[in-house]
Amino acid sequence: MARTLITGGLVITASDELHVDVLVDESQVVALATPGSHGWTADRVIDARGKYVIPGGVDGHTHMEMPFGGTLSADTFETGTRAAAWGGTTTIVDFAIQPKGGSLREGLDAWHEKADGTCAIDYGFHMIMSDVNESSLKQMDRLIEAGVTSFKLFTAYPGVFYSDDGQILRAMQRAGDNGGLIMMHAENGIAIDVLVEQALARGERDPRHHGEVRKALLEAEATHRVIRLSQVAGSPVYVVHVSAREALAELTRARDEGLPVFGETCPQYLFLSTDNLAEPDFEGAKYVCSTPLRPKEHQAALWRGLRTDDLQVVSTDHCPFCFKGQKDMGIGDFSKIPNGMPGVENRMDLLHQAVVDGHLSRRRWIEIACAAPARMFGLYPRKGTIAPGSDADIVVYDPEAEQTISAATHHMNVDYSAYEGRRITGRVETVLSRGVPVIEAGAYVGRAGHGAYVPRGLCQYL
C-alpha cells in the first residue's frame, strides 16, 4: 500500500477546523502538519484545495438483506456498502437478528455469512434480540467478547420482535453488568395494533394512515417507559429513530436528570413529513417506515435537539424496499407495506445541506455523522476522526458542488429516491477506506471484499 498526502484542504473534525495537510501511511493517518512546514513525500498526492477533508461517515443503523414482512430489504451488503461509499460513509453498523428459538451466535453467524467478502467498506454488527430468555441473556456476554456490544429490543411489532417490559428489564440488567448498550425501538406496539385493526375496519387503507395510527404519543409513552426501565436496571439506553417532539421531550427530561440516555434521529424525520405519506396514487407508500414520518412542525424540535446534544447521532435506518414488487404488497392495506426507506447514500450530503441552511455548524455535522456514532458504538478514535493512529477513512468533500438527488443517479439498489428532485449543495469527490481509494474523481474504484469486519468496544460515553 502507498503513502498518500492530502494537501491544501480544510480538515474538519468534531473538535477542530484546521488548514493542514494529512499524511497517510498504509492504512492509517500518521501525521497532520501546516502546509509548507514539512517535507513529506508520498506515492499519491490528493489536491484538496477549496475542499473539506473530513472523516468517513459512520452510519450506526442499517438493515442490509433484512427479512421483513415476507420480503428482503433490497440492498445486499455489496450494493449497500458501495452506495454508502458513494455518499461518503466508510463504516456501517448493521443489525444481525437472533432467530426465534435460536441463539444470538446463530444470528451473528448468519449475518457474517451475508457480509463477509462482499462489503466495499468496513462494517460491524448490533444484535436484535428476538427471544429474551435465560440462555440468550447469558449469550450477551459472549457476543460482547466478539465485538458485538449493543443489543436492540422492540416495544413494537408484537409476534415478531416485541419484548415485554419484563424481558426488556432483564436485558437491561444484564447490560448493566456486562457494559453492553441496549438500543430500543420505542413505540407502543400493542396499542398500535388495536388502532391498525380499527382503521382498516373503517376502510382507512391508504399509506397516510400508517402515520396516523402510529401516534406520536405512543412513541413518547414507550420512550418514557424504556427510560424508566433502564433507570431501574441501572443501565444506559439508546433510543433509535426518534421522530416525535414528544418522545424527544422524554429524552431531554431524562438527560437533564443526569441519566445515561441517548437518542438518534434520521434524515427522513428532518427533511420529510406526513405530507409525503399523503402523496396520491399510492406514492405515499415510498415513505412508510417506523417510527413514521411526522407533521412538519416536529422538525424544528429535532433540529434543536441535535444542536443541544439531546440527540447525539444521525443514522439512516437504511432499509430499502422497491416501490414496484415490494411496497405494492400493501395496495389496499397500509399495514402490509414493508416498513423502511433508502438513505445510506444521502445522509452526509443532506446533513451538509443542513449546514448550508444554518441548522448545524460544520463541526456539529461531523460530530453527529462521524465522531458521535463512533464513540457511541465503541469505534473511536479508530473511526470518526482524522488523527494520528486513526484509520485513513477520509473523504474529500466539495462544499460548493451542486447536485440533484434522484433514483436515476443514485447507487442504492432501489427503484425510487425518498428525496427525488431535491437540489443540494455539496458532493463527495474522493473516498479513502483504510487508505485505499473507493471513490475517485466521481468514479467507483473500490471492490467487494475490501471492507473488513470491525469488532467494537463498549460505548465510550459511559
Ends distance: 37 Å
Spans of at least 5 consecutive residues whose pLDDT stays below 50 are none
Count of runs of 4 or more consecutive helical residues: 13
Main pleated-sheet profile = 8 strands, parallel
Structural features, described:
- This protein is α/β, with parallel strands linked by helices.
- The protein has 13 helices and 21 strands.
- Strands 8-11-12-13-14-15-16-17 form an eight-stranded parallel β-sheet. Strands 3-2-7-18-19-20-21 form a seven-stranded mixed β-sheet. It has a four-stranded mixed β-sheet with strand order 5-4-1-6, with no helix packed on it.
Question: Short summary of the structure?
Answer:
The chain is α/β, with parallel strands linked by helices and 462 residues long. Helices cover 31% and strands 23% of the residues. It has helices at 77-86, 104-115, 134-145, 165-178, 189-201, 208-213, 216-233, 245-256, 267-271, 274-277, 297-307, 347-356, 362-376; strands at residues 4-7, 10-12, 17-19, 21-25, 28-33, 44-47, 52-55, 57-62, 67-68, 71-72, 89-97, 122-128, 150-154, 181-185, 237-239, 261-265, 313-314, 394-404, 423-433, 436-440, 443-444.
Features of the shown structure:
462 residues; alpha/beta; eight-stranded parallel beta sheet; seven-stranded mixed beta sheet; 31% helix; globular
Lay out the secondary structure.
Layout: E1 4-7, E2 10-12, E3 17-19, E4 21-25, E5 28-33, E6 44-47, E7 52-55, E8 57-62, E9 67-68, E10 71-72, H1 77-86, E11 89-97, H2 104-115, E12 122-128, H3 134-145, E13 150-154, H4 165-178, E14 181-185, H5 189-201, H6 208-213, H7 216-233, E15 237-239, H8 245-256, E16 261-265, H9 267-271, H10 274-277, H11 297-307, E17 313-314, H12 347-356, H13 362-376, E18 394-404, E19 423-433, E20 436-440, E21 443-444
Parallel strand pairs: 1-6, 2-7, 8-11, 11-12, 12-13, 13-14, 14-15, 15-16, 16-17
Antiparallel strand pairs: 1-4, 2-3, 4-5, 7-18, 9-10, 18-19, 19-20, 20-21
Helix pairs in contact: 3-4, 4-7, 7-8
